[in-house]
Design a protein that fits this description.
- By secondary structure, the chain is an alpha/beta fold.
- The protein is 40% helix and 19% strand.
- The chain contains seven helices and six strands; from the N terminus they run αβαβαβαβαβαβα.
- The chain has helices at residues 2-7, 19-31, 50-54, 69-79, 102-111, 133-146, 161-170; strands at 12-15, 36-41, 63-66, 86-88, 119-126, 150-157.
- The longest helix has 14 residues, at 133-146.
């Protein structure tokens, strides 16, 4: 990695939850001050608290990006990290950019054979343990037992797709 950084005249190393990256950030500062180290944490992953793992390297990183204020607050409170070294970058979607017309809304409901006033709740994401789509189906089931006027749809792909498809068919 050091060879590539030097031979390619890299200015910024962008780390995303990589142990090698965190270790390198601690060593690289002793080699040169010309390469900047940044990282992005966007989730509390199951089984691994990357804030915990990265905390010892907090001061070795030039900038730390997080995807929510909650994640920043968690890192600061739990690991006593300097809040000024974090910058929050919201990865959300601007809903105005995707403001669908009533024509599109009606067409979607027609394709799904739903009435025009049906309440539709969707899951859009990766069908993986980290996103926990099975729990989403459990919630949909519980809501469905209370209300029969709500419809649920899931869109995505991943290793749990077939499991989710089978569970949904059983609901």
């Amino acid at each position: 990695v050091s060879y590539l950084v030097i031979s390619r005249s890299v200015d910024v190393i962008f780390n995303r939850n990589s142990r090698i990256g965190y270790h390198l950030s601690a060593k690289w500062g002793k080699i040169t001050s010309e390469v900047r180290f940044t990282d992005l944490m966007h989730v509390h992953a199951f089984g691994e608290d990357w804030v915990r793992y990265s905390a010892p390297y907090h001061n070795d990183l030039d900038r730390r990006y997080v995807s929510s204020l909650d994640l920043k607050d968690y890192a600061v409170a739990k690991y006593q990290l300097d809040p000024d070294r974090f910058k929050v970058i919201y990865c959300g979607v601007d809903p105005e950019q995707f403001n669908i017309s009533s024509v599109v809304r009606r067409k979607v409901r027609e394709e799904l054979k739903l009435s025009s006033d049906a309440l539709l709740i969707g899951f859009v994401g990766r069908f993986a343990e980290q996103k926990n789509p099975i729990a989403w189906l459990d919630v949909a089931e519980a809501v469905g037992l209370e209300r029969n006027d709500i419809h649920f749809v899931m869109i995505g792909d991943g290793e749990l797709l077939e499991s989710c498809r089978l569970k949904a068919q059983g609901l």
